[in-house]
Amino acid sequence: MKIGKKLMKHNIIPITEEDILNNKSCKANENFTSVTIKRPTLKEAKETDYRTLCLLVGSLGLKFRPLKGSVENANYWLKNKTKEELLDLFKYEFV
After folding, report:
1. pTM to 2 decimals?
2. pLDDT of residue 2
3. R_g over Cα of the chain
4. How confident is the model at residue 25 (pLDDT cuts 50, 70, 90)?
5. How many domains does the chain have?
6. Origin, by domain of life (predicted)?
7. Cβ neighbourhood burial of 34 (10 Å; 0-12, 13-18, 19+)
C-alpha cells in the first residue's frame, strides 16, 4: 500500500479497513452487511483528535464508495489536509 509507506515516514499510523468499520463513530454488524454511524456534534468534533475525524470521513464515505475507497480517502485526508480544513468542509455532517 503506497499511502501507508508515506504515512509511516511521518510517524502517522495509517488507517485500515478494520479501523473504518469499528471505531468511535462507526460499528459494523457481524456479517459486515450493514454499518451504523453516530455523527458527533460540531463541538465534539472540534474536541476530537484529527485521526478520529479522518476515521469518521472514511466511515461516512461508505455510502458512496466501497470499503477500500473509503480507506484510501481517509488516509488521503490524514496525510494531506488539516483538521481545520476537514471541519470546514464536513461541518454539514455534524449534528
Report:
1. 0.82
2. 56
3. 13
4. confident
5. 1
6. Bacteria
7. exposed
Q: What is the dihedral of CA 7, 43, 29, 19, to 10 degrees?
A: 10
Considering only CA atoms, which of 87, 80, 17 is closest in space to residue 53? Answer: 87
Domain that includes residue 15, residue range: 2-93
In the block, cell 471505531 appears at: 23
Residue matched to cell numbers 456534534: 41
Rounded to the nearest 10 degrees, the angle between the axes of helix 67-80 and helix 2-9 is 30
Q: 49-78, pLDDT tens digit by residue?
A: 999 999 999 999 988 899 999 999 999 999
CA angle 63–65–71, rounded 5-degree value: 105
The residue assigned the cell 472540534 is 46
User: What is the rounded distance in angstroms from the CA atom of residue 65 to the CA atom of residue 91?
Assistant: 20
